[in-house]
Amino acid sequence: MSRLKGSDAQPQMTRRGFLVSMTAAGVAFGFPQASNAAMNPAVPDGTPIAPNGQPFEPSMWYWIDAEGQVNVNIIRAEMGQHVGTAIARILADELEVAWENVHITHVDTAEKWGLMVTGGSWSIWQSWPVYRQAGAPGAPR
What we know:
Blueprint: E1 3-5, E2 10-12, H1 15-30, E3 56-59, E4 62-64, E5 70-74, H2 83-95, E6 102-106, H3 123-135
Parallel strand pairs: 5-6
Antiparallel strand pairs: 1-2, 3-4, 4-5
Helix pairs in contact: 2-3
C-alpha cells in the first residue's frame, strides 16, 4: 500500500502499487466490449454495414438507412484512442439515435474530406463542430 514519511503524512506510491494500478487501468481500458464500440471488430477490416434501402444522406459525414442505422464517416486515424467512437458519439448525440444503431467507416484520403490530421490531441476538438453541425439536418424535430 502506501507509506507515510515525515510529519506531513502524505502517502507515497510504491512500485508495487503503481504496477497494480497500471495493470488495472490496462484491463479496464484496453479491452473494450464490442457493444461499446461503433466499429464491429468481428467484421473483416471493421467494414461497416451496407445501407438497407435508399439511405438519407444530408451531408458527406453520415447516412441513415431505412431501418434507422446510422453510418458515420470518420476522417481521423484510429491509433488505439477510439477517436472514431468518440466522433460517432458526437453525431449520435446530435441525431438522438440509440448507440447500438451507430456504425463507422474510416474513409479514404480523398481531397473532399479536407485536412485529415490525427495527433496533438486535435481529433475530437477539431471534429466536434463539424459533426455536430452535420447532425443538425438529420436531427428529429
